[in-house]
From TrEMBL:
<dbReference type="GO" id="GO:0004181">
    <property type="term" value="F:metallocarboxypeptidase activity"/>
</dbReference>
<dbReference type="Pfam" id="PF25571">
    <property type="entry name" value="TPR_CCP1_N"/>
</dbReference>
<keyword id="KW-0963">Cytoplasm</keyword>
<keyword id="KW-0479">Metal-binding</keyword>
<keyword id="KW-0121">Carboxypeptidase</keyword>
<dbReference type="InterPro" id="IPR033852">
    <property type="entry name" value="CBPC1/4"/>
</dbReference>
<feature type="compositionally biased region" description="Acidic residues">
    <location>
        <begin position="280"/>
        <end position="312"/>
    </location>
</feature>
<dbReference type="GO" id="GO:0005829">
    <property type="term" value="C:cytosol"/>
</dbReference>
<feature type="domain" description="Peptidase M14">
    <location>
        <begin position="668"/>
        <end position="971"/>
    </location>
</feature>
<feature type="region of interest" description="Disordered">
    <location>
        <begin position="266"/>
        <end position="313"/>
    </location>
</feature>
<keyword id="KW-0482">Metalloprotease</keyword>
<feature type="active site" description="Proton donor/acceptor">
    <location>
        <position position="922"/>
    </location>
</feature>
<dbReference type="InterPro" id="IPR000834">
    <property type="entry name" value="Peptidase_M14"/>
</dbReference>
<dbReference type="InterPro" id="IPR050821">
    <property type="entry name" value="Cytosolic_carboxypeptidase"/>
</dbReference>
<dbReference type="InterPro" id="IPR011989">
    <property type="entry name" value="ARM-like"/>
</dbReference>
<keyword id="KW-0378">Hydrolase</keyword>
<dbReference type="GO" id="GO:0008270">
    <property type="term" value="F:zinc ion binding"/>
</dbReference>
Amino acid sequence: MLEQEAAEHMVSPSESLFFSPGTGRRIHYMISKGGSEALLQALTAAAQPEPPDHSTLLPLLRLLARVGQRDQKFGLKVQKADATDTILSLARRNLGHHLYLTHCLWVLRVCASNGEATLGINGAMELLFKVITPYSKRHVRTVRAAIEALAALLKSKSNSRRAVNRGYLGGLLRLYQDWHHNDVSNNYIYIRRGLLLCLKHITNIQLGRETFLGSRGMEILFTSVQDCLSCKNLDPIITTVTQILRKCYPKEPLPLASVRSSYSFPLPRNAKAEPPCEGSEGDYESDGEEEDEKDLDNEDVESKEEDYDLETDVNKLRSRPVLDRPEEELRQYESMCPELSHNFQVLSQCGEKDFKIPLQSWTKKEKCRWDQTDVKRDIAEAAQDAPSCEEEDPASSHVLALRPLPKDAAWCKKMFCSECEDSINPNAGGRLESSYTLTNLLEKHQEDIPFHSPRFYVARAKCVKSIADYKDLAFPDFWGHQPPPYSKPMLERKHGVQSAEETSSLKQPAIGILALIYCSCSSPGAPGCLTFFSKFESGNLRKAIQVREFEYDLIMNADVNSNQHHQWFYFEVRDMKLAVPYRFNIINCEKFNSQFNYGMQLVMYSVKEALQGRPRWLRAGHDICYYKNHYRCSAAAGGGMRGKFYYTLTFSIKFPHKDDVCYLAYHYPYTYSTMMSHLDILEQNRNPKKVYWRQQTLCQTLGGNLCPLLTITAMPESKKGDDLEQFYNRPYVFLMARVHPGESNASWVMKGTLEFLVSSDPIADLLRKCFIFKIVPMLNPDGVINGNHRCSLSGDDLNRQWLTPTSQLHPTIYHAKGLLYYLRSIGRAPLVFCDYHGHSQKKNVFVYGCSIKETLWQAGCMVDTNVITEDVGYRTLPKILDKVAPAFVMNSCSFLVEKSRESTARVVVWKEMGVLRSYTMESTYCGCSHGLYKCTFSLKPSASLHQGLQLGTQELEEMGSKFCLGLLILHLKSLPCSKKVMAQAALLLDLEEEITDRTQRSVIVAFRGFSCETSWCRYVLGLNLQKWTFVMAEVCILGTGMY
Ligand SMILES: [Zn+2]
């Protein structure tokens, strides 16, 4: 018989064949030709004689172990060949002969790993258990083989059940302890790990977990792992212990009466049925058998799943859906394009005067210097377009008080006279807007923060409509933020922090304080505790629980009308001691991974620091770590099929002053009032001779707040026909930001864009002459105001509503889309559309765009280039940004159209409005892994040079202004433009001095504070200069090529 011959041929002499390179292929070939069966037959034959023929058996067993490992049906084949008993009895007969025994155990292991189910019934476990107990360092190879075989067997749930019933779990725990204590020099890590794997498999079943807890498993493993934390070699052990501890730790619901947001908002006219309310908190699942252990160190888990999500239906990709509303409705948007019907005949004569009034010294008196008619009309229009607070119904605006200041600050005594101390005391009813505190503070404020005015802020904040009816102003938003003179590198991750944090979190709370000290609806805490507060614009903290003397568990509030989307936090903390590291655990995070594990820090603002002249949000926190915790959300409450997991963000903070008032946030806050007061300042500071600026209201939000719409372009050069025609015919650029309220980085980028657009920079001047900008700086004001992370008041993700928005539920989206429809209907669809976002999982700044070809190609579809012709113009802008914007990285961009994104602004505007350059621009919350901001240097020679910079507001704003520069270059590259524009551009972008200045400025800005070595400086400068030169060269080549 062929098989038998083959087997005989294979054994002994040609055994070496299978251990040489190329083995894998040969073995697979052999398996396909019935090799496993033949070997098993040979084994049965060789095992029959008494005593067995060991000279054949040993190589045969070795071969079987080898081949079986690669044969997925090996277990079945063993069963079929009735070889199970043969192997087991061979092992039993050789209990005293360790070489033979070990060989048998290897084969048993591959049987168990590859589907031999009957081993458990046949007494294999008893045999293996006998081999490994009691603890002994003799015959370690045999012990190892037995433990590995046992671990393989225990993967089967019925075997695990059997093992528990026979009392093996306790035995395994004791054995693990013995190995742990005796393996002082860590020579037997694989044995310890093997035992842990046995425990890990057994605890996959409920019975196993209960028995584990009953056998003091938590304490035993927890104590043992404490000795391992300092040693890097022991990572596999620490990881496995952590997995077991986490799995066995009793699951609990969050310490909340209901996970649903503490705020609810009645939707208009029953527009949508309420989502089913969560069940009682007792019904959380004790959770399915196994939990997926996602690899935390794989940053790209997301991208693996993306390919399945690609839209591959060419017809869907190319179709243009019909209008989602009656066509006559579009007429209402005509009034949102006042620039198209503006009559410039009243334009003043002295338009050439240069505007040189410094920003902060702007007064009404100076304003009068301008042409009276023009100013009057401006004011009249502004009043009509952008209702400001003063004109509103006084009843609608409410009294706001600044949060109480630190009590003992020295400046405080100097600043306030004794009789008005009441106004500083939180309990003395000092909630008077005219309080001395506010007045004195306003007098003290240096007004030296560009584009920020506390007065304007207060005025705007008074008009905000919030669900909780905020009565307090957070100090940082009122006082303002000035970026620090340096950027901070990403935190370097210390070895073992994750494991240490994770395992220590699994201990029972050491001290039974567990006092509830803050609840968004209750009173302040006990003496000696920190005091928390977050009932102010964009604030989000639901509950704080003191778990140890200096440690607090914090719970974020869910988005309004929802029970999820916890990520954004912003709260005040006071009554701290000096030099104490406080530990905070935010215990209801939802994302399975976070940049907090890759160098990102949160931000902190100290009121004392601010009053001493350093008003700034700073990156803060150390020993930061993010991991899955033991809290679960019941399936009903989580709105999903299975109970949802929660994650903990944990960090330590040392506050800079005693008894300070500090604010902590997920990222640099940027409230709705900040945005509105910023627009007020921009409006007042622009040069109306040069900048055409209209602020209108796109619509009112569900919460009754106004969503502003801006139009920015250059005033026409003159009243002459040509110039007016040029004005009316400028292509449109449509920009939006902050549809997701937790993405405050998007607002800082938008701030940079707006400031550049109205600035007197000659590039801005030229850019304004090239485009009409339509800008919605904050698409989700209600979400931002109420401290949401993702949604609007309806509980919807507004960036998933673009296909069919409704005017009742998603007014801002409905009208933004309406305006875009209108532009398309008059043949003026924008040249560029960009929606600013923030990305929590990736580094750098990048865009998502839309390309049919790239989508099909990525999905592995055939692309018929004759059928699909596509303009690759969508790539130009990101390519330019890669060169001009230090934080922007082309390689991070993607141009794929995903099914799950079909209702986002980017895809809808691309498909329905036919906008080729339709983008989502994502800014990281963290920092840069490429480009100029990647290289940092430290004075400490030991410190790494590889950590990139964390982005600050300065870098985000710079991104916004560089985006504008990119638009200008795009215009020069892609559109026919007049000789005049080209000449101006050449003059601006080609002036070497100017460029050097600019470059140096930007580099100095980026690297201020680093007392870096000259060579480094030169390197960085050179790098940036090269970039510039490159752009210049391109522009110049283009310049000569046209007209
Ligand atoms: Zn977003």
